[in-house]
Amino acid sequence: MILIVDDKKENIYSLQSLLQLHSYDVDTALSGEEALKKVLNRQYEIIILDVQMPGIDGYEVAETLTGYSKTKNTPIIFLSAVNIDKKFITKGYAAGGADYLTKPFDPDLLLLKVKTFCRLHAQTQELKMAQESLKAEVHTRILAEKALLEANLQLEEKINDRTRDLLRINKSLEESNTDLQQFASIASHDLQEPLRKIMIFSRMLQEKFLNSQSGGHQYIEKIFSASNRMRNLINDLLEYSKLSDTPQFVLTDLNPILAETLSDLELLIDEKKAKIFVESMPVLEVIPGQMRQVFQNLLSNALKFSGHDQHPVINISCEKTNVISTGMNGMPEEGIRIFIRDNGIGFNEMYLHKIFNIFQRLHQSEYEGNGIGLAIVKKIIDKHHGTLTAISKEGNGATFIIELPLRQFTTYHSANSIPA
Asked: What are phi and psi of 410, to 5 degrees?
């Protein structure tokens, strides 16, 4: 919308016709006072202002308009047939005019200037809207950053609270675990002492009062067998409870450990007429005593669960691999995969999830055992940040597969030494 201000109607009519002919919307005012009232209620793209008017002249109107925040950026074109001297033109620019045309004016030049100022006014409005939008976006982002900062502080406080809770719980668990280990040790001693007396006095009763031909002799043998199973159960439970101790990893050559285990099992190997084939084992960070337990339990099972009419054949091998667990850099760590294969009775793989649970036995009657051995092996491998699984078919043997990292990235990393 363009506002034409002139005290002469004929001038207004001439300009209004020219501008409307070129599709401009036009408003008019016959005095400076009327123009000032109109700009208070409406936004104009351009104001074409006559200089010489009764009352408030064009210069005063321009100065007043440039003082309003609403109209200070509205282009003003002065149009005068009287005040055409250079000093009046200069005064018009000083009063806030954007241009100064004298009459008679060139219509094409006036239209060109109107078009230019309308475009500049539109661009100014767009820029103003963009600035307001940017200001609003900045304000929104500031609020969002403030909310995010508050959320982060709250989250950090929650994490700190949770960490403190976990530390308290961990300390409580450590104390409980220590108490449990002490209890297990005391209970083991207190249970084994009366058991030892049962076995001693049963043996004395057998030697002094019973002979091998009497029926009582068979009952005494059953007492011995049951007592022996109970003693093994107590020892295994004690060993299982000890696995909660803080581990101390050291660089260890597995070959001597495996050789010592086979030496301990020498009598059973000879009795079973077993053949055992062993490949060279690597050096890796482990808890030596616990790895001895792993080999002891797995090899004992392989020897025990052999067919009644066949001699055990056991193959122990290994290969390099990338273990499932990751190190400090988040990448898979280099490790080994150990295979212990036998030709024994095997088991149905549908029970694979059960065999590593404590007190779980698949062969209840034919073979002795208390169902703790494989649970101990599983717990040890877990503490070594490895995995344990098995593949088998009934009657076709079993293969136990152990995956272990070569190095343990833990807070309790011990000195790199190979035990003698």
From this structure: -140, 165
> What's the whole-number mean pLDDT along residues 40-54?
88
Nearest residue to 401 via CA among 357, 330, 335? 335
Nearest CA to 184 among 239, 227, 229?
239
With cut-offs at 50, 70 and 90, classify the pLDDT of residue 182.
low
Whether 419 shows a pLDDT value over 50: the answer reads no
225-255 pLDDT, tens per residue?
Answer: 777 767 766 766 666 566 655 668 889 999 9
CA distance 373 to 226: 18
- What are the backbone dihedrals phi and psi of residue 98, each rounded to the nearest 5 degrees, phi first? -90, -25
Residue 11: its H or E element: helix 9-21
Which helix (H) or strand (E) element contains residue 23?
none
Please answer whether residues 372 and 297 qualify as being in contact, where contact means their C-beta atoms are separated by less than 8 angstroms: no
Q: Which residues contact 220 (CB under 8 A, 6 or more apart)?
A: 202, 203, 205, 206, 210
How much is the pLDDT for 200? 82
Report residue 74 as tokens.
Answer: 């509205």
Please give the C-alpha separations between residue 165 and each of 11, 173, 226, in angstroms, as whole numbers. Answer: 87, 12, 46
Place of tokens 């043997």: 397
Residue 376 contacts residue 297 (beta carbons within 8 Å): yes
d(CA 297, CA 46): 98
27 near 1, Cβ under 8 Å? yes
d(CA 250, CA 365): 41
Query: Looking at the predicted structure, is the pLDDT value of residue 277 above 80?
Result: yes
Residue, of 75 and 195, whose pLDDT is higher: 75
Burial class (CB in 10 A: 0-12, 13-18, 19+), 375: buried
The residues near 72 (Cβ < 8 Å, ≥ 6 apart) are: 65, 66, 96
> Cα 222 to the chain's mean position, in Å?
58
By 3-state DSSP, what share of the chain in percent is helix, strand and coil, each rounded to 5?
Answer: 55, 15, 30
Give the model confidence (pLDDT) of 398-408 as tens digits. Answer: 999 999 999 88
Residue given tokens 């850099």 in the structure block: 329
Distance CA(77)–CA(392), nearest Å, equals 99
Q: Is 62 within 8 Å of 75 (Cβ atoms)? A: no
Residue with tokens 């207004």: 12
